[in-house]
């Protein structure tokens, strides 16, 4: 028995009030069709939800002539045939093959410039249908082609960490009501959140601060996966990962599927934490983070996870404690890993500027370009280095009042001695020359 086409069944369901009547009075057909057109429908293979009166009327007369078979969609008789000449078809295909990235508009312009008959009358839709039929409409590896995605999980805790940002609520930050951002790092194998914090911005500095705490609490991952945001591509982040031998990986743009576990974590945060949060009791961002960290340790990490065979994230993480890399020698020097360095020209007064403030450096560096070493997380200037990274001394905040009483250094004795031993100089020679010239102009009796 031949199967009825689903579109034919849909069309017959629309015609129900008409198909059930044996005869209709004059003008009744128009009224019923108008009433049917006013309804909304779940039209198969279409985003539209309304039908035109002429469409319903055409279906009705087709059904009257041939029954349900007449309601089955018929393919176009000219389907697969192009009205373009063979020469035009070849020109279009060759133009596309020469540069697969060319748009329909560019192809149309190039073919029109060829001077072939009918080339100037080509439409974009005709070109598109031809390329689609020849299999040339999509770029290899383009977003239009399906990309294979498979569910996976890391074999051990610490193998893969994910990082991402979620927009959070508005709280008081530095005395102002501002929106904050939740920056999180999650372990793939255990779903344990190695560290998460609400931050006033989503810059590289905040991301580094969260990573620093995660490393101190949960060890060093093998791979760290971020998206392509500028905050994750900062040179400081890349330098930290290089020193700790962390493989820094960036996801392909516009592929949230690659971080599905973190997307699920964000949903859990919204439903389990933010939905239960009483914002009237939250004074500021510090208060908000205190509640987040309490909820993480007492709720999220201790609740069995469906993707972990009933284990909690903390239990699954502890299974692999012996495999997780520690900070090792960097544990006591963790702050050094996250130092920032900025090129600065030392002024004539022996100072450099940073964040609108001036700092004094060794006076011997006047006129040189140095690297100002800063701990941005403690908002402290540490010192100065050469462009090769060699330490050159401390950098202290300028105290202009104290400098009023400070004794200036004078030239060393060796420099003064060198001046005394130098003998004649340009000034003395000029004076002697002028004296001789004057003496030469006077009469002998006046000399």
Descriptive tags:
447 residues; alpha+beta; Nucleotidyltransferase, domain 5; five-stranded mixed beta sheet; 17% strand
Structure description:
This protein has helices at residues 6-14, 16-19, 28-37, 53-66, 86-98, 104-112, 124-133, 204-218, 235-243, 260-274, 285-298, 313-319, 334-337, 400-403, 413-420, 426-441, and strands at residues 160-173, 176-187, 193-199, 223-226, 247-250, 340-345, 351-354, 357-360, 369-375, 380-385, 391-394, 396-397. It is α+β, with helices and mostly antiparallel strands. It has 4 domains: 6-71, no CATH class; 86-133; 160-319, Nucleotidyltransferase, domain 5, CATH 3.30.420.10; 339-403, Beta Barrel (OB fold (Dihydrolipoamide Acetyltransferase, E2P)), CATH 2.40.50. The strands form 3 sheets. It has a 5-stranded mixed beta sheet, sandwiched between helices. Strand 7 and strand 8 form a beta hairpin. The longest helix is centred in the last third of the chain and has 16 residues, at 426-441. It is extended and about 135 Å long. The termini are far apart.
